[in-house]
Amino acid sequence: MYADFAKDFTTEFYDANQWAEILNSSGAAYIVFTSKHAEGYTNWPSSTAFNWNSMAVGPKRDIVGELGEAIRTKTNLHFGLYHCLYEWLNPLYNQDKANNWTTSQFSRTKTTPALYEIVKRYKPHIVWSDGDAEAPASYWNSTTFIAWLYNDSPVKDEVVTNDRWGTDCKCKNGGVWTCGDRYQPGKLQPHKWVNAMTIDRQSWGYRRNADSSQYLSIEELLATFAETVSFGGNMLMNIGPTKEGTIVPIFEERLRQMGQWLNVNGEGIRGTKPWSKQNDTLTSGIWYTKKVDAVYAIVLTWPTDILSLAAPIPSSSTTVSLLGYTEKFQWTRRPSSGIDIQIPPIPFNKMPCKWTWIFKLSNLENI
Known about the structure:
Blueprint: H1 2-5, H2 16-25, E1 30-36, H3 63-74, E2 78-84, H4 91-98, H5 105-122, E3 126-130, H6 137-140, H7 142-151, E4 160-161, E5 193-198, H8 218-230, E6 233-238, H9 249-265, E7 286-291, E8 294-299, E9 306-309, E10 314-322, E11 328-329, E12 331-333, E13 339-342, E14 357-364
Parallel strand pairs: 1-2, 2-3, 3-4, 5-6
Antiparallel strand pairs: 7-8, 8-14, 9-13, 10-11, 10-14, 12-13
C-alpha cells in the first residue's frame, strides 16, 4: 500500500532553509526529524533501504541531509533524528517475530546498520528511538549500539538518547525518559523526561481533512508546556509536513506563537528547575518553576484585582514583577500562609503577551 503512494511524495516545495527559520522562530532548543518510520521508507539515501528511500523514489533528494545542514548553518538549534526500529511490513522482521525473537535477521541486517549510518553520516545531537514495543533490547542489540554511541561515535561527547530501545527499557533505561506518547506524569520524576505530544489532537502526521478545532490552541499548548516544565520535563511538539514538503500555516502559526511567548517569558522557563511546589493549591491554573534567586508563577488565566497564592511565603524584602512589564506589583502576606498580589489595571497595549503570564517572586522565605 505504501509503495503505491511513494511517487506522490514529491517535496517539490521543500526548502530546508525555510524550515530552519520557522523551527528556529519557535524558541525551541532542539528539533527531532523523522529519518525513518514504521513503513520503512528512509528520508535519506540509506544503504539498507534499497529502492525505498528519498533518493531512489519520490523526492530524489536527501531530505535529512538538507535539513541537518540548514539547522547547523542557519540556527543554534540542536539537530536530532527519530528512527523507528521495527517495520510493519518487512518479512525479515515478521519472521523474527514469529520465531519469538530467537532469530535477529532483521535487526542485524537492517536496524543496526541504519542506526550506525545516520550517526556517522549526519552526526545528530539526539538519537530518538521508537518502534521497540514488541521486542526486548537484546533483540535490537541496543546495549552495544548505545555503548558505541556514548563512547566511540563522532557525537559521543554531546549526544542524548531516549528510552525506547526495547520492551524492557521504557521509563527505566536509556537517556531521557519518554515512557509513552503524550506522557504527563503529574508528579516529579527521578529522571529527566520528555512529553512528546502533537499539535494535531488526533494525528502525528498531516491530515488534509482536519479542521481548526482539531488543533490545540496556543492557550492549550502553553498550559501543557507549563505543567510539563513545572514537573521537570521538556515538551517535544509534533508537526506533520505535507507531501509537497511544506509546513502548513496552522503549524507555522503555533510555532511562531510559542516563540513570541518565549521571547517575553523565557526567563521563567529556560534554565529553571522544579520548585518544591509544582502547582498552587489555592488558585488553580498556576504552575511553578524556580532559579537560585526567584520563583516563577506561570498563570494561565489573567487575574482580576488580586492574585492569591498559597505556596510562596514572602519575606520583608520580597519583590513581585511580571516578565516583560517594567513596574513592580504591590503585595500583602496572607493571614495563614501565602501571598496576595495586587493586580492594577494594565492597558492592553502595555501587556507583555496575549496568553499565559509569568510572575517573578524574588527573595521569598521558602525559595
